[in-house]
Amino acid sequence: MPGPGPHLMYAMGSGLCLTSISNGRFGPHHTLFYTINAFFGPDVGSFTEWLGSLFGGSAHALGSSLEDLIHHPFFYILLLGLPLSFLYSRISSYLLHTQLLDSVSRVPLTRMQCFLLISAGSFTHFFLDHLFEIQQHSIIH
After folding, report:
1. Handedness of CA 11, 5, 42, 87 (dihedral sign)
2. What PANTHER family does the entry give (predicted)?
3. Which tens digits make up the pLDDT trace of 100-121?
4. Which of 4, 36, 46, 123 is least buried, going by the fewest C-beta atoms within 10 A?
5. CA distance 127 to 141
6. Structural domain includes residue 70
7. Is residue 138 part of a domain?
8. Residue 67: which H helix or E strand, with range?
């Protein structure tokens, strides 16, 4: 698996390309949530495993089982897609109202748009993971 750099650069580069070819319809708003999910999304399971290892015992076992469930292209979307789409929709509204993020349409992202960005980010994350793996071994050691 590649480190966080390739995930971040690929997602932000893809977002920039989509922004330029869509005449602003795919803007910074979309790129932010797409990048978050491509960069950190499915690896949140690995983070819970690491966090559980700090506490040891049953916390480590719980973190390990969560990592096995969440670090999957479809399970991430099925388990966390709906809750995150509600959260991202709220954050989108907040960012627009406080003018921390600009949007051409001045309309916050809908839950469905957030869900689709979560799905696209997850698939992008695993595309890069599998691109750097050969027969279950990472190219980069």
Report:
1. negative
2. OS04G0465800 PROTEIN
3. 877 666 788 999 999 999 999 9
4. 4
5. 19
6. yes
7. no
8. helix 58-70
